[in-house]
Design brief:
By secondary structure, the protein is α+β, with helices and mostly antiparallel strands. The protein folds into 3 domains: about 45-160, PAS domain (Beta-Lactamase, 2-Layer Sandwich), CATH 3.30.450; about 280-405; about 405-545, Heat Shock Protein 90, CATH 3.30.565.10. The chain contains 11 helices and 17 strands. A hairpin with a 4-residue loop joins β6 (about 175-180) and β7 (about 185-190). α6 runs parallel beside α7, α8 runs antiparallel to α10 and α9 (about 410-420) packs parallel to α10 (about 445-465).
Length: about 550
């Protein structure tokens, strides 16, 4: 985009040159149209001049006896005439080659008055649209007697087809349409009426023979056209030429090479040259450094920018900087990995020693338990040992886990239940069913969860699970960010801690539930026994994928 903007002046200069070329061509076309109009008018004047010469020759003998026969003979011999009419000085028909129409009147007509006042000839189109079934114009010459006084006029009807120019003339512009109009701008004859305005008002701009005028006008069909008008004889009749007016878009379609292709080619060549230089000198090396940076981002610090030795000095310096940075990062990562490995080893050793210490404490409590005589004290000591054993199991799971921050809850619960059920030698009398959804949980949340399970299973075991056929169901489910631990037994049941008196186990389970920000619920089973449920949110624990 930046290159295109930088090279935009080239395209703008080409556009200006194309616009100037369009304006010059428009002027040239209008000059050609004016020349064609003047040429057409000259051609028509030459044809009408021949007719006037013939009329001047015939007017001197048009008063002799038998003038009608003479005029009829002249009409047959001169194809340019369709009729000849001789008027006397009062404007009456003296004789004619054939009877004239009633619309052809001389007395009081402007053309007849002009001849009476001394004008040698006059041309007009005042006999209507057609004469003898085709458009005509009238040419009249002044008749005088022996003393030179006005003696009338000889008028000839001349078909327009004999004087109007043909479109096939190679001197005419392409797409030209031709019309003959009178002094009022009305069309007498035309090759295409829709190519001209309804009334051509421009004859008033034409001052005389040899003069021509051109302008832009909207035709009857609604499109813009260039109009040129030139007089034929005096201001009685004019020839009008009409050609399509080219706008910039149409001119560009007619001149695609000079108007569009050459500017675009110049712009494209300039853009390509700059782009190739920029690509070979900058862009491809930037892309190379980008790929190198992506490799470094993936930890492949051993890759060195060998290709950058052929790059420009600035790129080479940047590549060397990246290489030095990668070497420093690689060395720092090595040190960090060694440090983390040492810390990992130390943490595993700490967890292992804590587990061993807890087992030592459990052994000491076992010796103390055997020295006691009271059953209640022995039972309390046994419960304490189970809680300590559960904590020891947590630390063993930590130092045996690949990740010191997470413990697989499924394996942990399986081992914890097996340890609790078999602690008093009744594992052969209890049917255990375990169903656990996979979940990695951190030690801070695993401890209260494990101790809650110890209290719930211990209570279930104390109330009938030791009898033959006892069943213990442990279910752990995870759904939409919440987890539920359900421990169900088939024993004789125990008092609901919510009913009034709360024992140590119940108080501990409530405390552990609050640590997990969860809720505990005790429900009687339909077929006997009780179900203890703990619901808590799994955040910030992460569910296994």
């Amino acid at each position: 985009m930046a290159l295109a903007i930088a090279l935009a002046p080239v395209l703008g200069l080409s556009a200006v040159q194309s616009a100037l070329g369009f304006q010059n061509e428009v002027k040239a076309e209008r000059r050609a149209l004016v020349g064609a109009a003047e040429l057409s008018a000259a051609t028509m004047r030459a044809r009408t001049s021949v007719s006037l010469v013939v009329l001047r020759t015939l007017v001197s003998g048009s008063e002799a006896p038998g003038c009608a026969q003479q005029l009829a003979y002249a009409v047959r011999e001169v194809p340019a005439f369709t009729n000849l009419v001789r008027f006397d000085r009062l404007g009456r028909v003296a004789c004619a080659a054939q009877p004239p129409p009633s619309s052809l009147k001389a007395a009081g007509a402007s053309w007849f008055n002009a001849l009476a006042l001394g004008k040698p000839f006059e041309m007009f189109s005042g006999v209507g649209a057609t004469y003898a079934a085709e458009p005509v114009i009238l040419a009249s010459v002044r008749a005088v007697d022996e003393r030179g006084a006005f003696a009338g006029a000889l008028t000839a009807t001349i078909p327009l087809r004999t004087i109007r120019p043909l479109k096939s003339n190679p001197a005419l512009p392409a797409g030209v349409e031709i019309a003959l109009i009178d002094a009022e701008g009305r069309q007498l004859s035309t090759t295409s009426p829709a190519a001209f305005p309804a009334i051509v008002t421009a004859p008033r701009k034409v001052t005389g023979v040899g003069d021509a005028s051109t302008w832009l006008a909207r035709s009857r069909s609604g499109d813009l056209r260039d109009i040129a008008v030139a007089p034929i004889l005096g201001n009685a009749m004019y020839v009008v030429l009409s050609t399509p007016s080219h706008n910039a878009l149409s001119w560009a379609r007619l001149n695609p090479v000079s108007a569009i292709l050459l500017p675009l080619l110049a712009f494209g060549l300039a853009l390509s040259a700059v782009w190739i230089v920029a690509d070979r000198g900058v862009v491809r090396w930037i892309a190379y450094l980008r790929r190198l940076a992506l490799l470094y981002a993936r930890g492949r610090y051993g890759v060195h920018p060998a290709r950058a030795r052929r790059a420009p000095p600035e790129i080479r310096e940047l590549a060397d900087t990246l290489d030095a940075m990668a070497s420093l990062i690689a060395e720092r990562d090595r040190v960090l990995r060694d440090t983390l490995a040492q810390k990992d080893t130390m943490m595993r050793e700490i967890h292992h020693r804590v587990k061993n210490n807890l087992q030592v404490i459990s052994s000491l409590l076992s010796m103390q338990q055997r020295a006691l005589d009271e059953p209640a004290a022995q039972a309390a000591m046994a419960d304490t040992r189970q809680r300590i054993a559960a904590l020891a199991l947590i630390y063993r799971g930590l130092y045996q886990s690949p990740d010191l921050r997470r413990v697989d809850l499924r394996d942990f619960l399986e081992e914890l239940i097996a340890q609790l059920v078999s602690s008093d030698g009744t594992c052969g009398l209890i049917q255990t069913h375990l169903q656990v959804d996979p979940l990695d949980i951190d030690p801070d949340r695993l401890a209260p969860l494990a101790l809650f399970a110890v209290e719930a299973i211990t209570n279930a075991r104390k109330h009938g699970l030791g009898e033959p056929g006892g069943r213990l169901n442990v279910t752990f489910t995870v759904l939409e960010g919440d987890a539920e631990l359900a421990i169900s037994d088939s024993g004789t049941g125990f008092e609901d801690p919510r009913a009034g008196r709360v024992g140590v186990g119940g108080a501990l389970m409530g405390a552990f539930a609050r640590q997990l920000r969860g809720k505990v619920d005790f429900t009687a089973n339909a077929d006997g026994g009780r179900t203890t449920r703990l619901k808590f949110p799994t955040h910030p624990a992460a569910r296994m994928g």
